[in-house]
Amino acid sequence: MRAFIYAPLMAIALACLASASASGAGSESARIVVEKQWARASIGTSRPSVAYMTIGNNGKTAAVLIDVATPAAARAEVHESNTVNGIASMQPAGPITIPAGGSVRLRPGGLHMMLIGLNRPLQKGDILPIALHFKSGATITVEVPILSIRAKGPEN
Amino acid sequence: MRLTLLQKILWACAGVGLVAWLGLIVAIDYQGHDTAKPAADEKSELRPEFRLVSNTGQAVTEAAWPGKWLLVFFGFTNCPDICPTTLSDVAAVMDALGSAHDGIQPLFITIDPERDRVENVARYVAAFHPGIVGLTGDASAIAAAATSFHVYFEKIQQEGAPDGYTMGHTTALYLVNPAGEFIRTYSYGTPVEDIVRDLKERL
Questions:
Q1: Could you tell me the fold of the domain covering A20-147?
Q2: What residues are paired with A146 via a beta bridge?
Q3: CATH code for the domain in which residue B58 is found
Q4: Which of A1, A72, A83, B66 could in theory staple to A88 by disulfide, Cβ–Cβ 3.0 to 4.6 A?
Q5: pLDDT tens, position by position, for chain A (156 residues)?
Q6: Are residues B31 and B66 both part of a single domain?
C-alpha cells in the first residue's frame, strides 16, 4: 500500500532528475541546468499553450538561447509579457542571454515559451519534450511535465 | 560640388535614419498617451455597464446577478500567459471562499470578440471553474463594456502570432458591489489569500 502511494512521487522525482538530456557541441550541454519546468494543459489545439522553466548557466561564459522547438507544436517561441500602467501585452523576446553563473526564469507574467499551432491537445500528466537551441550549436532537450490548466507554478 | 556614389548613399542613409528617429519619438509619445488612460482617480466615478451574451447564449447586463458582487476580468482566450494565470487565481479564490462564494459572481469578458464566440468562451471558462461566466458580444458592445470599466484594450498586429495578431489589455480584476458600484481593482499578481481576505470582509 505504501509503495503504491510513493510510486508516483518516485516517478516524479526521477523524471525531474532525468529531465534534461543534452546533445551538441562543446561543453554547453554540461553547463546548462534546467529546472522547475512545466507546461500548461490546453483546451483542444486551436489556442496556443505555454511552457515555463528556469534555465541556469554554470559555465564561465554567457549562453545564448536562440531557438526553441517541440514536436507537439508547429512553432515555439520565447515571448515576454510586459505590463505598463496595468496594461499587458506580449511580444517575441528574441535571443535570451543566460549570464555566466546566473539563470533566467520563465514564469507567468514574464518570459514564457509560446507553443503555437498545437498538433494535439496538451493533456495534464503527459510529458512534453522541448528542445533548447543555443548559439554555440548545442541543443538541450528538456522533458516538461504538463500540469493542469489551473496551475500557476511547477509545484501544482 | 559633385557627390560620389558613396557620398550619395551615405547621405541617403542619414536621411532615412533621421526620419526613423523622428518616427520613434512620435511613436513613444503616442504610446505614453495611450497607456496613461486609466488614471486611478477616475475609478471612483466608474459605473460598470454592459449588454453582452453569456456562455449559455443568454443576453445579460450587469444587473443579471441580483444580490451578488461581481469579480470581473477582461481578457482573451488566445492569451497563454496572463489570462490563464488570472483565471486560475479567480478559481482559487472561489474554492477558498467555500460556501461564501455564492455571494460572488466571477465574470470573464473577452476583448477579442472576433475569435471568442460563445462556444469558445464557454469551453475556456469551464476549464478553470464552473462558477465563472464568460461573456462576449459584438465589437461595439465589447468596446462599450470596456469603456464603462475604464478598461483599455488594443489589437496588436504581430507576425507569427496566431491569426497574425495579439491583444494588449488591462489586467486587473474589478470588484463591483451588489448595488452596481465599482469598489476596487486587484492588480495582476495580487496573492489569492489577499483577495479572499478582502472579499470575506465585504460579504
A1: Immunoglobulin-like (2.60.40)
A2: A39
A3: 3.40.30.10
A4: A83
A5: 444 555 555 444 444 444 445 544 455 667 999 999 999 999 999 999 999 999 999 999 999 999 999 999 999 999 999 999 999 999 999 999 999 999 999 999 999 999 999 999 999 999 999 999 999 999 999 999 999 999 999 986
A6: no
Least Cα separation, residue A89 to chain B (angstroms)? 4
ipTM of the complex: 0.80
A69: left (phi over 0), alpha (psi -120 to 50) or beta: beta
Residues B65 and B116 in one domain: yes
What pTM did the predictor assign? Answer: 0.80
The three cell numbers of residue B43 are 475609478
Chain A hits for B38, CB-CB cut-off 8 Å, are 85-87
Q: Max Cα separation, chain A?
A: 54
Asked if B181 and B137 sit in the same domain, the reply is: yes
Residue in chain A closest to B92 (alpha carbons) equals: A150
Inter-chain Cβ pairs, chain A and chain B, closer than 8 A: 97
Integer distance in angstroms from the first to the last C-alpha of chain A? Answer: 24
Chain A residues whose C-beta is within 8 A of a chain B C-beta are 40, 43-44, 47-50, 75, 77, 79, 81, 83-92, 108-109, 112, 114-117, 149-152
Amino acid at B93: V
